[in-house]
Amino acid sequence: MKASLVTIEPNGHSCSDCAVREFAVCSSLDAAELRELEHLGRRVHFAAGQTVFSEEDITTSFYNVLDGVMRLYKLLPDGRRQIVGFALPGDFLGMNISGRHNFSADAIGTVTICQFAKAPFTRFIEDRPHLLRRINELAIRELTQARDHMVLLGRRSADEKVATFLLGWRERLILLKGPIGTVPLPMSRQDIADYLGLTIETVSRTFTKLERLGVIEIIPGGIGLLDAERAGALAAA
Amino acid sequence: MKASLVTIEPNGHSCSDCAVREFAVCSSLDAAELRELEHLGRRVHFAAGQTVFSEEDITTSFYNVLDGVMRLYKLLPDGRRQIVGFALPGDFLGMNISGRHNFSADAIGTVTICQFAKAPFTRFIEDRPHLLRRINELAIRELTQARDHMVLLGRRSADEKVATFLLGWRERLILLKGPIGTVPLPMSRQDIADYLGLTIETVSRTFTKLERLGVIEIIPGGIGLLDAERAGALAAA
DNA sequence: TCCGATTTTTGATCCCGATCAATGACGCCC
DNA sequence: GGGCGTCATTGATCGGGATCAAAAATCGGA
C-alpha cells in the first residue's frame, strides 16, 4: 500500500526527545510546560512537493519544522515567484496579524512538522511571557535576515548573489548539524533562482563559472566548497 | 544663535497629548503606565540629514518616531546602499538580538523622536506582557512588509517598482493623516532609487514616463496622482 | 536495464536598466 | 539679484542578465 502524501503520526510522541528542542520556540519552556504543550501539538509528515499552507489561507495552525526543508514564497498574479526564505528544523511558521498567511509553504523533500491549532496555542502563550519573548526573538531574527536579503536582491550582482547564498546556506546547516563535508542543496535550481531574483539559466551558468574557477565542485544533490576564502571574496560580504 | 543639529527638548512633555499615541508601541499601555513611561523617554530633535544611529553601533536606546520621515538603510563595503524602509511617526526602532543595530537611520527633513534608554525600557517591558505583545505585533507587521518588498526587489520591473512605491507610500500617509490631495515625497530621487533597487536615472525616467502617460503629475516636493486605476494596473498588485 | 519525463546545462541573441555624459532647475547664501 | 553647489532630467551607449532554443544529464518507474 502506498503511503498518503500527508500523514499524521498516530501514537504519542514526546517533546523531551524532540530533535529541535533547543533551537525551536520550545526552548523557552520548562519540563512541566513541555508536557502540557505535548497535548496541543501533533506531528505531521508531508511528502516532497506538498503544500503545507498557501498565501491568503486563513491561519488555523502554527507550525514548527522538525525535519526537512521547506520553501516559503509569494506569487505575483502572472506567476512570477519570489522565494522569501527556506525553512529548516527549528523554524516557527504561521505568525501574522491579518489572520491569514502572507506567504505559501511547500515541503522540499519529505518534511516533518509539529502542528499546533491556533486557538489553543494562542491561549497557551497568553500567560507565558517567556514563550512570547522567545517568539519575539525569532521574529526579530527573521526580520534581520529579511533585511539582509533585501540588500542581496536590490544591490548585488548575480555572482555575488550565488556566492552569498552558498555560504549562507552552508552556515545555517553547520549551525544546525555541526561541521559538514559537502553542502547538500535539496532545492532545485529554479528554487535557488527564485530565491535570488535570477533565472534558472543564470544560476546554472554561475555554478559552472564557480566550478571553473575552482571555488566549488558540483556534485549530485549539492556542492563541495573547495575555496571558502575565494567564495567569501566573491560574496563581498 | 544657530540651532544645534541635535537638540533635546528641555521641559516636561506628556504622553497623553502625544500625536502618535494610538499608532505607536504605547497604544498598549494604560494611563498609569503612560505616566511611568514618561520618565523613561525624552524627546529629541534631529536636523535634516542627521544620522540617528548607524549599523554596527551598540544599541543603547530604542526610538519611537514622533514626527518626520527617516530612511533606514544598509551599506555594502564598496558603498552600494539599500534602503530597507522609510520610518514614519509611530514606528519603533532599535529592536535586535545581537545588541547592535543592523541598519543605519537618518533623518529626512527634521525629525522628532522619543528616545528610551535600553536598560530601563527593557526592564519596563519585563513584567508587561501586553507591551511585549504590542512590540511583537509591530515586528510581525514589519516582517510582512519586508517580504512584500523582497518580491518587489526580486521580481518586479522598474515601472512596477515605481508605481508600487508611489501607491504604497500614498497609502501609508493616508493611514497616518487621513485623505490627502497630492503625495509629498520628502526623500530624494536617490533615496527612492536605493529603496527600489534602481538607479536615480531610471527613477527619474520612470517618473517622466508616468507623467507623460497622464498617471501622475510631478510637482515640487511630491507628485499628484491623476489616475489611480492606471497606476494600480502598472503596479500589477 | 531501458525509456520517457524532468531538470540542468550550454549556446545564441536580445533588451531593460546601468553607465557615462551633459544640460537644466532649484535653493541658498552673500 | 547673481553666482554656486546640489539635485533632477535627458540623451547616448553599453552590458549583465533575460529570453529563446537545444542538447545533455538525471531521475523515476515499468
From TrEMBL, chains A, B:
InterPro entries: cNMP-bd_dom (IPR000595), cNMP-bd_dom_sf (IPR018490), Env_Response_Regulators (IPR050397), HTH_CRP (IPR012318), RmlC-like_jellyroll (IPR014710), Tscrpt_reg_HTH_Crp-type_CS (IPR018335), WH-like_DNA-bd_sf (IPR036388), WH_DNA-bd_sf (IPR036390)
Domain HTH crp-type: 156-229
Annotated Gene Ontology cellular component terms: cytosol
Gene3D superfamilies the UniProt entry points to: Jelly Rolls, Winged helix-like DNA-binding domain superfamily/Winged helix DNA-binding domain
Pfam families in alphabetical order: cNMP_binding (PF00027), Crp (PF00325)
The entry's keywords: DNA-binding, Transcription, Transcription regulation
Record domain Cyclic nucleotide-binding: where: 25-94
UniProt GO MF annotations: DNA binding; DNA-binding transcription factor activity
PANTHER family: CRP FAMILY TRANSCRIPTIONAL REGULATORY PROTEIN, FUMARATE AND NITRATE REDUCTION REGULATORY PROTEIN
Protein name as annotated: Nitrogen fixation protein FixK
